[in-house]
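Input.
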Amino acid sequence: MSALRFAPPPAARSAPRVTRPDRARAPTVAPRGWRDDSPLVDEAEAKSSKRAERKARSTQRRLEASGAETVVGVGKGDSASARLTKIDLGQGKSVDLHVPSDVADVSGAVSPETLAKFKEALYGAGDVVWPAGLALARLIAHCPSLVAGKRVLEVGAGLGVVGNAALRAGASAVCMCDVDGDMLRLAKASAAENAPEDPSRAATLVLDWSAIPETFCVSGEQKYDVVVAADVLYDATAARCVSDVVGRATKPGGMALLCDPENRTHRDDFADAAVALGWETVEADFPGRSDMRLLQATRVEIKKHPQA
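Output.
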C-alpha cells in the first residue's frame, strides 16, 4: 500500500480523495517538443499575457497545420547567452532571473528521431523556467509566511526561480542546489537582483543527488527549515534521491514542499522512500493550477509514553 496520503478537497473534508492505479494518466509530450511547456515570455509580452496566450495558440495551430519540423538551437542553453528577464508571478509580484536565450526549441510535426535526440540532450535540464517551478514560485510569493525568516533549500534548482522567489518573500537564507554548476552561477547572479540589500542571504551548492556527500547537512546548524523542489520527480530513481536529500537536509519540525506536474507518475515512489525515513507525505490540489500537484512532507514524531 502506498505511503502517500491525499488531502481532502476544501469543500468536502469528509470525503478523502483516493487514487486508482488503473486510471493513472500517462505523461504526454507537448506538440511543439521539449521547450514549449515553459511559460517564459519576454517582459513586454508578460504585460499583456492574454494577448500573448492567444498569439501562442494561433502560432501553434499554424505550425501543426504546416506539418513542417523546425529545430532551433542544439540542446541545453549556454549560460553566456543569458539575459535578465522579469518572471511575472501575478498580482504585481515578480522575480528577476538570468535566463539563457539560445535554448533548443522544436516546432511543427516533430519526428521520433528528433524527440529521441532532444530527450538525451535535455532530460532534467534546468536552463528554462518550467511550469511547476513557476507555480511553486507563485505560491511562495503570495504566501510568504511559508518561508519568511526561515532557512530554505531549493533542490534541483536549475535557474533558481523558486529559491529567488523565497528570497523576495523574506527567507533569512536560501541555498539553491543542482548538479549543473553553469545554471547555479546564473541563479546566484539572479539573487543579487532579487536581494540587492543583502546578496549574502543566497548561496549555491553543486549537488549530485545520486551521490550525496557524507558532509552534506550533518550538523543541526547546516539543516534547513524548509526544503522546496519543483518538477524533480520525473522518474523513480529521482524520486528516491530527492527523498534522501529531504531527509538529510530538513531540521526537526521542518517541512518539504514539492510541486509536481499532475500527469507525472512517481509521487508514490517519493512517498514510499520518505516513509522509510520517518516522513509522512500528503498530496493535495495545487492552488489555482489543476495541472499541478502539491506535496508536503513532514517528519513523523513518535513519542514514547512513560510506563504507568
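The CA atoms of residues 29 and 37 lie 9 Å apart.
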